[in-house]
What does this fold into?
Amino acid sequence: MPGPSNPPGRADVVVIGAGVMGASIALELQRSGRSVVVVDKGNAVGGGSTSSSSAVVRFNYSTLAGVVAAWESVQRWADWSGHLGHVDGPLARLVRCPMLFLEPPGFPRSEATSLLAEVGVPFEVLDEHELTRRFPSLDTGRFFPPRRPDDPCFGDPPTGRLDAVLVPGWFHRHPTIATANLNYSTAMEPDGRVVDRYDKVRTVPFGEFVPFRGLLEAVSGTDLPARDVLPGTGPAVLDSSIGRLGVAISWEVFFEHRTRDAAADGAEVLLNPTNGASYWLTVLQSQQVASSRLRALETGRWVLQVAPTGFSAVVDPQGRTVLKVGKPQDDHVRVSATDLAAWYRTDGDPTFAARLDRTIGGLLPGLRWLDRWMTSCVTTYTPTGHPMIDALDDRVFCCIGGNGYAAKCAPALGELAAGILLGNSWPSEVDRDLFRASFAA
Ligand SMILES: Cc1cc2nc3c(=O)[nH]c(=O)nc-3n(C[C@H](O)[C@H](O)[C@H](O)COP(=O)(O)OP(=O)(O)OC[C@H]3O[C@@H](n4cnc5c(N)ncnc54)[C@H](O)[C@@H]3O)c2cc1C
It folds into this structure.
């Protein structure tokens, strides 16, 4: 990159890459009194991905580290001039506005909201009625499942409204017991109210809890699940406005007493929410459908087995499978490194762009384009799902954002990276191991 006419012959640190990450690290190093040179193969500072950023700062990450990094960083963005040391000139400005996050079906909302609450990010949960009131231009119709832009139906009008009792399954850490997880189903009314909850009673040994944990941990090291699911004790039913539903969560359907008790307790239909990801392409998937058929026969109830991975099935009270569906769930496009590099050098895909035009035009009739350009965009993920901030050897360090972290979290990540390079201690509230570098061979 064309730089000063007399670049220094020596510097304490050379930062490679003048994107938002490199610039943030350089700033922190310079603050610490080090001399820093930033080199870039391009011809402008921030000319890489940073130049394409939509500059959105959001906090709804699925991990505590993600929420903390974004929330810490926004304090810097808010006082940008102060953060830079009160420099003159036109500066980036933070414009605060609310962000609306629409929940896809089955999304475990508490995973996101509990993290926001833990970090202190303000949020509200709105039901459909409140959404319509506050955002009259928002179409609250049902567009799920998501479609890729090359799907001919991409951008089609909504297929209906969500006017049903939902029974989402939830699996997450216990909010107060550090050693426990929870696995449960809730009944959610069309207006978003959660009206009942059933916690899984028969948990899976070695999958969800470790029998004789104290004894086994001594010999098996870190191979065991870190936390045990706290089992429920209640009857296997959920009450809702459409009646009483019997619930056997995942492998509970193999135990006839769970569904028999549910039927005896008045359940009119039996639900078997499950996720067969651990048993993909094994006979267990078929055995589970067979088990659902037995439960239907024994109780004389319909059984609905629903699995994001594995088989979903509708079984009638005579034990006949009237519907069985199942296929791998994978909306990622996997390409070779060569194809990826070739794509990255293009200006994007005109077919995708035309479809997006059509969609935006449909949503905002009369919109007049002032400018419009295309660029290729690749989202990168690290194996851990977190940025990598690490020493590669005594003199070489890396800081890789990825995972949607980089730009908005750059101030906080820059501080962490500069701290590592300077030998400072890692802040205790951030799990160091999440940020270690690991590269596939
Ligand atoms: C369309 C789009 C929209 C986005 N919207 C948002 C958003 O709303 N909010 C958000 O937070 N993030 C967003 N992002 C992501 C964000 O922009 C990037 O994660 C971030 O800018 C990456 O910063 P970086 O410094 O890591 O990389 P870059 O900005 O790409 O910088 C890397 C630099 O390294 C240089 N370089 C590469 N190789 C070499 C080499 N061998 N020698 C010397 N120099 C080299 C490049 O020239 C480049 O200048 C968006 C990204 C895109 C593409």
